TrEMBL record:
Cytoplasm recorded as keyword: no
Full protein name: CocE/NonD family hydrolase
Stored InterPro entries: AB_hydrolase_fold, CocE/Ser_esterase, Galactose-bd-like_sf, Xaa-Pro-like_dom, Xaa-Pro_dipept_C, Xaa-Pro_dipeptidyl-ppase/CocE
Superkingdom, taxonomy of origin: Bacteria
Length: 681
């Protein structure tokens, strides 16, 4: 995972702010149990005389090295505009005390409430606090808002979710998200093993490091909870939306893995606004594809309104502003996504109407006509060209031409459109079906097919068919019994031009997105009136839509950094025709950087392999490898991890190994092995 700072020509670097800035490094925030959290604070120099509101970003990603570059363009910007901008390492990460045993723990929230208490006591603080964060920081902003501390007045949450089971890197549609379950666990396995800096904390770093190195891999817990139980309900604000009673600005991008949550949040939180651009999993002032926007200026409008009481007009903004993307041929990365901004004053929007399409032979038609049922067989290697679940903007993240996939699924195609259509929201596929196995899943793709033949993936979704009744209480299917299922595809903001077609692809496999069912599955689609595709078609609102505009991106000056090793990425799919084995190998050398201001250097390499043999779902195997380095002239740390996940009909098998080096000498090695029963997966 790389936190990049874009060199976009449209971004303006601000060096002259309304307020002169001071930076407070290595600030310790004491917790009631004696632990200390490490903070860096940027604030106006005169804040002790003229106190200011505070903005908190609260992450496990190491402020002194790993996020120092990206932090430098954002936190000084807020401070220069009259805020105390605070970056805190979560307990057990960076230089903070302790170790981190899992994501989104109660302890993480409790510590945040104590941070608020501490802020209120500072001479530079008015006592009003906002939270901002992307991904983990977006998640915990929502979760901490639900704790209703009086100091927290508003949040900005980016690339996050309201439901940890439905909409995160562990499960999708009740299926194990094989592409990310082990990868993200292996990422945190390596990240959480990095030590405190002895130059900051002293000799105690060694004892704490041993504690961090012995942290049980998170994947054990995640695979142990295969249904939506209390483990996942914790931290899912959808359990009680009313608990979030402060203004929420929810932001994401169409290339992100978490866009659906924006729709959920603005529909269910009364004091909320939504923004969706064309972007990857990144802040919009630096994100690709273009257009990037002046997002930090938008943040200031939000903070000025809710933390300073200045009327900025955010209350009058549309409920949702989104970028409708123009149709483009498939590419594994885009520098730009042409399109237009649109505005919807409410959500659900009166501008959205459902368009229904029925299955007829190999076609999608506007009217239902009785036709023969359709048999959908398993092809285990279906899904390799889907791209990554949550693109960070690395080259190769996006889906390839779906003609490479369509021979491995059953395809239904519309006639060429006679006029342009725009879609905004979640496509839905309703289907009546029968299964020849007790355990089964279904994956659905929606593609934009150009007159010249290229097929661009615009949305996909999947459902564990054992979860038809609920994600909490799965049941075995009765073979050859008729069932009704509804598959929600990922949300879209997409224009499909005149002359193009839509393709609907259906399969009972989607590797490596879904862990395969234990036996090959054949589905029978019952092509009656209840089996149909529903599209969220938006009627353009020229006057309202034309009113949307943003300033060009602004940031503070990025800190100096020296590139010791350039980034490099390869992503290859191979097919061994002798063994009929397919393999995806994804390698990212995320480079190495030196930070002159503190002398720290850090680098990372990551390799992920997903393999499967045609016809054999039990051959599925995920492997993830990390190498992390951190250090300075007289202190050098290297972490190596390798993680593996396999299964048979009854169990999942997990193996994780961690090796640590201090000044080039191996000082730690441990292997964890775990067997976990399959629970309708």
């Amino acid at each position: 995972m790389v936190f990049n700072v874009s060199d976009s020509d449209t971004r303006k670097t601000i060096t002259d702010f309304p307020y002169e800035i001071t930076k407070m490094e290595h600030v310790w925030i004491p917790m009631s149990d004696g632990k200390r959290l490490a903070a860096t604070i940027w604030l106006p120099k005169n804040a002790n005389t003229y106190p200011v509101p505070a903005i908190l970003e609260y992450l496990p990603y190491r402020k002194e090295d790993f996020t120092a570059i990206r932090d430098s363009i954002r936190h000084p910007y807020f401070a220069g505009n009259g805020y105390a901008s605070i970056r805190v390492d979560i307990r057990g990460t960076g230089n903070s005390d302790g170790y981190l045993p899992d994501e989104y723990l109660q302890q993480e929230q409790d510590d945040a409430l104590e941070i608020f208490d501490w802020i209120e006591k500072q001479p530079w603080a008015t006592g009003k606090v906002g939270m901002i964060g992307k991904s983990w920081g977006g998640f915990n902003g929502l979760q901490i808002a639900a704790r209703q501390h009086h100091a927290l007045q508003a949040i900005i949450t980016l690339c996050s979710t309201d439901d940890r089971y439905r909409d995160d890197v562990h499960y999708r549609g009740g299926n194990i998200l094989a592409s990310d379950m082990l990868w993200w666990a292996s990422t945190m396995f390596a990240y959480s093993a990095r030590p405190q800096d002895p130059k900051v904390v002293g000799d105690s770093w060694k004892e704490n490091w041993i504690e961090r190195l012995n942290t049980t891999p998170y994947v054990h817990e995640w695979v142990s909870h295969q249904t939506r139980d209390d483990y996942w309900k914790h931290g899912s604000i959808c359990e009680d939306y009313e608990a979030v009673d402060i203004p929420v600005f929810a932001v994401s991008g169409w290339q992100d893995g978490y866009t659906d949550a924006v729709f959920q949040l603005i529909e269910n939180l009364p004091y909320s606004k939504g923004l969706i651009g064309p972007w990857y999993h990144e802040y919009p002032e630096v994100a690709g594809p273009e257009p990037a926007i002046g997002f930090l200026q938008e943040c200031l409008r939000w903070w000025d309104q809710w933390l300073k009481g200045i009327e900025t007009g955010v209350e009058d903004d549309p409920k949702l502003i989104s970028w409708i993307q123009d149709s483009l041929p498939p590419q594994v990365n885009y520098e730009e996504r042409p399109g237009k901004w649109v505005a919807d004053t409410n959500w659900p929007s009166v501008n959205i109407q459902n368009k229904q399409l029925w299955l007829h032979n190999s076609k999608l038609t506007d009217t239902y006509t009785k036709t023969d049922n359709v048999i959908v067989p398993s092809v285990q290697e279906h899904g390799y060209y889907n791209g990554v679940f949550c693109p960070f903007g690395e080259s190769g993240d996006l889906p390839s031409d779906q003609r490479l996939e369509n021979g491995k699924a059953i395809i239904f195609t519309t006639a060429p459109f006679t006029e342009n259509i725009e879609m905004l929201g979640n496509p839905i596929f309703d289907m009546e079906f029968k299964s020849n196995q007790e355990n089964a899943l279904v994956a659905v793709r929606l593609c934009d097919k150009a007159p010249t033949g290229e097929s661009t993936l615009i949305s996909w979704g999947m459902l564990n068919l054992n979860h038809l009744m609920s994600h909490e209480n799965p049941e075995s299917l009765i073979t050859n019994k008729k069932y009704q299922a509804q598959i929600q595809l990922n949300c879209v903001g997409q224009s499909v031009p005149k002359g193009h077609r839509l393709e609907l692809a259906i399969a009972p496999t989607y590797w490596p997105q879904a862990w395969p069912s234990p036996k090959p599955v054949t589905l029978e689609l019952l092509t009656n009136e209840n089996t149909k595709l529903i599209l969220p078609v938006r009627t353009p609102q020229p006057e309202t839509d034309a009113s949307v505009s943003f300033e060009a991106p602004e940031t503070a000056q990025v800190i100096d950094r020296e590139i010791l090793r350039e980034e490099n990425r390869t992503r290859e799919i191979t097919h061994n025709m002798l063994t009929d084995t397919w393999k995806l190998e994804d390698y990212s050398d995320e480079g190495e950087r030196l930070l002159p201001h503190n002398g720290l250097k850090h680098g990372s390499k990551n390799k992920n392999i997903y393999s499967i043999q045609s016809g054999d779902p039990l051959s599925a195997k995920a492997e993830c490898y990390w190498e992390l380095t951190i250090g300075r002239e007289d202190w050098d740390i290297k972490i190596l991890t390798d993680s593996e996940m396999t299964s048979d009909k009854q169990n999942f098998y997990l193996k994780n190994k961690l090796t640590a080096f201090h000044n080039e000498k191996q000082c730690f090695q441990r292997t964890w092995e775990e067997t976990i029963p399959r629970n309708y997966q």
